[in-house]
Amino acid sequence: MSSLCSNSATSLSCNNSFQSKNPLLHTIFNFFPSIKPHSCFPYTVIRCSIQKRPEYIPSKISDHKYVRIFDTTLRDGEQSPGATMTTKEKLDVARKLAKLGVDIIEAGFPASSEADFEAVRLIAEEIGNNSDGDYVPVICGLARCNKRDIDKAWEAVKCAKRPRVHTFIATSEIHMKYKLKMSKEEVVEKARSMVAYARSLGCEDVEFSPEDAGRSEREFLYHILGEVIKAGATTLNIPDTVGYTVPTEFGQLIADIKANTPGIENVIISTHCQNDLGLSTANTLAGACAGARQVEVTINGIGERAGNASLEEVVMALKCRGEQVLGGLYTGINSQHIVPTSKMVEEYTGLQVQPHKAIVGANAFAHESGIHQDGMLKHKDTYEIISPEDIGLNRANEAGIVLGKLSGRHALKSKMLELGYDIEGKELEDIFWRFKSVAEKKKKITDDDIIALMSDEIFQPQVVWQLADVQITCGSLGLSTATVKLIDSDGQDHVACSVGTGPVDAAYKAVDLIVKVPITLLEYSMNAVTEGIDAIASTRVLIRGEDDHAITNGSIGPTLHRTFRRLARLPE
Known about the structure:
alpha/beta, 2-isopropylmalate synthase activity, disordered C terminus, amino-acid biosynthesis, 16 helices, transferase, 2-isopropylmalate synthase, EC 2.3.3.13, eight-stranded parallel barrel, Double Stranded RNA Binding Domain, disordered N terminus
């Protein structure tokens, strides 16, 4: 199989004799003519293995088969409506990403707010200087092409061992005309001067993105990319900002940039694919086939509009098929941390992973069809191309440990390690007593119960008011009465009663009478985490204060966005 990173220009042939119905396969066959559509590959279940990561050098990679994983969950992912996270939550996610082994963490957009600046700075300070294993991730801050943004980004990330500034400006005709109201010459000068400015601050790792590259004029794209390379850019990120391209187009775009941009051999080409047409993962893989050696992704594929390329999908596609059809491409990701990281992001953002989501969905390894079940019982490789254990989905305990009300701390800790949580000290003690409380009420404690307990323990803000009791009476005409008892931080009891249009409205009005802070309930939802009449439920609450000051831990401006996990029995 030919090398993916040869110095010669790479291009796609439109006259290839094989016209696959699958655009991604068409792209792959063009890049690797030795791969034929009738080729037969051994069907093996992927087992977890981590190849040695090349030494980090901003503008080059010593192993041409290595693909850097740039995670933008904390920046682009947080742009999903309702997905705002607190500083503490961002730190927790960044720690998980470091355990996962991502190469670059885009920690946020420092110029957007003081809260985001502080979150990026703290991530750079902690995660950007502590290795989990033998690698310290690059910490990146986003900036528009202006000095204020770049100053903020550099100030936030400069304390990291490997800081990066990522700056961008739109290059498509529609964006330049209607959004920027700038000429091509002005855009080129702005991009060139701001990349040079970032380098002048002492930042040796500068990424540049031509926004909406997928709809930009090719010759103009080659020109502006060549200019920012001369100004000192080390990574060129090619965004399909509106998810408009299909794999053959995007692969060709990367190939054309590689063949026609002056100085391209001195930088890393990156991809950033949105999912508006559901093609973000396919486009990302096509870009990697064409020579991109950095891919920008998010956990669970969250992001603006329809989301981004999913980290778990891209990583496992490379792990599963990289050696066979993708030229041996590989990453440094420890895939056993995928599921715990996915669950944390799901918990913090409140964005539920759809059950049939590839890799991390609840049904991804479920087999209901009789034919499939028969095959699985005879040999599990018949219907599983990936081992669930290798993404951190452990459903069997080799020691035969079954947790119940008589289980001790050691057994609980063993189960937590199996599920991907390494806890000690007070954290273990606190969750142990919560576990005992649930175990007294449930005959069978499942893995999902344990994960829900863990979520409830570590994902919550400091308690200011504690719910002691609530009693609700509902009528047939929709009028409900709620009596609520809260305990304040000094241990004093407070009781109030109110009526409302439904039990939730009545309960929150009673809380208002006690707390004496006017709030508006924007969203309330409850989802079962486990099965059965004694199941644990996940409750999501979104409230807004009527003034601009912070009135509870985790507030962001006037909007108070918290995801509350509480152990509760579902209504019988």
